[in-house]
Every structure is written in C-alpha cells, then in structure tokens.
C-alpha cells in the first residue's frame, strides 16, 4: 500500500460518524428537492430547454462562489494554467452529468427515473476499484448487489418504456459514477479543495455550454418561452438555479466525509423515497406489483448498506488489504476497460 493511499485511508477514519451522517443527510435532502423543482419546471411548466436550466445552475454557482471568495468567506486557488491540469476531467464529467440528468428528468416519470439511477451504484463500485484501487468488504458488496437486483426487478415492469429516455438515464449513470470517483480523487489536490472544484468546474464549462445552446437553437427556445413573466415559474427557475449550487456542494461535502460509493448509495435511498412519493403525486406512475417489489428490494439493500457503512468501526473501504476472509477484491483487467469511454 502506497503512502498516498495510507494517508487517504487515515483521513477517512478521522471524520466523525456524525459528520459523515449529517453530510449524507444534507446531500439526500438537496437531491430530493432539486428533482422535485426540476420536474416541476420541465414537465409541469413544459420549459423547453434543460440545457438552459443547467446553464442557470452553473452561472449561479460561479456568482455565489466568486462573491464568497471576494469577501474572503471561502478560500481557494486563484486561476492560472495549472487549474486545467489539476481539475481535468471533472468539467467534462460535470457537464455530461448535468445535461443527461436534466434530459432524463424531463423524459422519465419520477419512479422510473429513480429506479434506473440505481445502475450508478454498480458503476461507482467498479470505477472505485479501477481508479482508486479500492477493495470492499463482502457485506457491503452484497447490499450493493441487492440494490442493483431490485432496480432490475423494478425496471422489468416498466410499461412506459422509451428508448431515448433510457439512453439518457444510463449515460447519466456513467457520468455520475465517474464524476463521484474523480471528485473524491481531486479533493486532495493542493489549491483546489471543495470550493475550488465547484468554482472551476462551473466556470470552465458554462461558456462552452452557452455557445452550444445558442448554436443549436436551444437558447432561442428558452429566451422565447412564454412564461417568463409568470411569477410562480420564475420563482421555481431561480430556486432550481440556487439548488443546483447547493446540490453540487452537498455532493462534494458528502464525498469529502464519505466514499464515492457511499455518496452514490445515499442518493439511491433518497431516490427510492422519491419513487414512493411519485406513486401518489405527479400522476405519471404506472403501478405494478413487480415494480413495487423491486423498489422495496432497493430500499432494503440501501438501508443495510447505510447501517453497515455508518456504524462500522473501521473504514467501509480499505485500500491494499487482501487475503482476508471478510473482503472481496474487485479487480478489473486493463483490457476490459478499454471499450468504456465517456464522451
């Protein structure tokens, strides 16, 4: 085990259980609220541009953190050429996560959106094993597989299948998993920290995204939207922009105190709770016993994982420990990863 890996493990053990739990709860709450707000904007108000909504969230992040840095409320490195090297590939993953996430929110019902998001968990586990060289205790792996199996069961009964929607959500799963793992990796980068990652992620991609929106005609659709004078809609739009910043901060904070996989599982538990609510609110859920059974399997696996992760006396993920009976090392051959790319 390298000195760097040992230091990373030591830092994980220094965080109190309360800090881990509170950061996870903050992330779950933020994620729940923004899904509801975005669903309202994109579905109920039929706002035509999920890309423009993402631009608003990124711009709000830049403005808030710039003001906070100027007032010396927060501190992070000033911009120079080294920033690009330090933060890459997070900006690409960030924009991919934002755009595909908003697109899938618009096209899928809340319950099916939350079910298919469970695939992020298994992807995160594989990426942590491959990129961060993590190994996982068997009991955590079994709980993750239970969540994954529940998602498969629930999705098998989807009566509102849409190929484009499923493509967006699976791409979103890939981007989310990669973003979580690389965020955890970059948190230890000198000069960046939590706020630097958020600020430079947003500022690097907001202009190219705005240009893309203008070039594709997406910006024109957003500007000519008929409800810009509707106070209720504008309030929801502003709330979404602010919650975009809050969500990104909560993800980074949860990743700081926990592992990338734990952050993903917390999101999964929250999503199942949203799915339960979606059965009674929204009117776009097609009930089936198979789907309901799958949701319950997901929730059970998530609760077991949370109990094990937050009540363990040792880190939930241990680097470089092999050969013990209670652990299973996930090893991904180099060749098997060559065909996986994030575009």
Annotation field: number of helices: 14
Please list the strands of the largest sheet in the order they lie side by side: 2-1-3
What is the radius of gyration computed over CA atoms, rounded to a whole number of angstroms? 20 Å
| Annotation, overall tally of beta strands | 3
- The first-to-last residue Cα distance is 32 Å
Secondary-structure element order, N to C = HHHHHHHEHHHHHHHEE
Defining traits:
3 strands, 343 residues, disordered C terminus, mainly alpha, three-stranded antiparallel β-sheet
Give your account of this protein's structure.
The chain has 343 residues and is an all-alpha fold. The chain is built from 14 helices and three strands. A three-stranded antiparallel sheet has the order 2-1-3. Helix 3 packs antiparallel against helix 10 and helix 13 packs antiparallel against helix 14. The two termini are 32 Å apart. The N terminus and C terminus are likely disordered.
Blueprint of the fold:
Elements: H1 3-14, H2 17-44, H3 50-70, H4 82-87, H5 90-107, H6 110-116, H7 119-131, E1 134-137, H8 138-155, H9 163-186, H10 193-216, H11 218-223, H12 231-257, H13 260-278, H14 289-311, E2 318-319, E3 327-328
Antiparallel strand pairs: 1-2, 1-3
Helix pairs in contact: 2-5, 2-12, 2-13, 3-5, 3-10, 3-12, 5-9, 5-10, 6-13, 7-9, 7-13, 8-14, 9-13, 10-12, 13-14
């Amino acid at each position: 085990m390298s000195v760097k890996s040992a230091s990373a493990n030591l830092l994980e053990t220094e965080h109190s259980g309360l800090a881990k739990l509170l950061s996870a709860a903050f992330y779950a709450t933020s994620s729940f609220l923004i899904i509801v707000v975005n669903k309202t904007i994109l579905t109920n108000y039929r706002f035509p541009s999920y890309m423009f909504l993402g631009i608003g969230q990124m711009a709000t992040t830049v403005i808030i953190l710039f003001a906070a840095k100027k007032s010396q409320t927060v501190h992070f490195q000033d911009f120079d050429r080294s920033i690009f090297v330090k933060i890459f590939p997070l900006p690409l993953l960030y924009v991919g996560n934002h755009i595909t996430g908003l697109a899938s929110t618009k096209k899928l019902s809340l319950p099916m959106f939350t079910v298919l998001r469970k695939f992020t968990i298994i992807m995160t586990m594989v990426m942590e094993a491959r990129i961060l060289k993590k190994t996982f205790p068997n009991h955590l792996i079994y709980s993750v597989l239970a969540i994954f199996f529940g998602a498969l069961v629930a999705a098998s009964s989807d009566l509102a299948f849409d190929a484009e929607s499923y493509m967006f959500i699976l791409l979103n799963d890939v981007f989310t998993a990669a973003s979580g793992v690389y965020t955890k990796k970059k948190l230890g980068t000198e000069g960046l920290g939590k706020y630097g990652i958020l600020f430079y992620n947003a500022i690097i991609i907001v202009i190219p995204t705005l240009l893309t929106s203008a070039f594709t005609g997406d910006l024109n659709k957003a500007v000519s939207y008929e409800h810009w004078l509707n106070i209720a809609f504008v309030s929801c739009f502003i709330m979404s922009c602010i919650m975009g910043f809050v969500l990104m901060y909560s993800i980074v904070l949860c990743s700081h105190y926990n592992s990338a996989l734990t952050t993903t599982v917390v999101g999964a538990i929250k999503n199942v709770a949203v799915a339960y609510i979606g059965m009674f609110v929204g009117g776009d859920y097609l009930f089936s016993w198979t789907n309901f059974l799958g949701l319950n399997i997901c929730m059970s696996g998530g609760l077991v994982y949370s109990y094990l992760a937050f009540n363990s006396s040792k880190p939930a993920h241990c680097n470089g420990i092999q050969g013990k009976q209670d652990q299973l090392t996930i090893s991904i051959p180099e060749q098997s990863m060559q065909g996986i790319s994030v575009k």
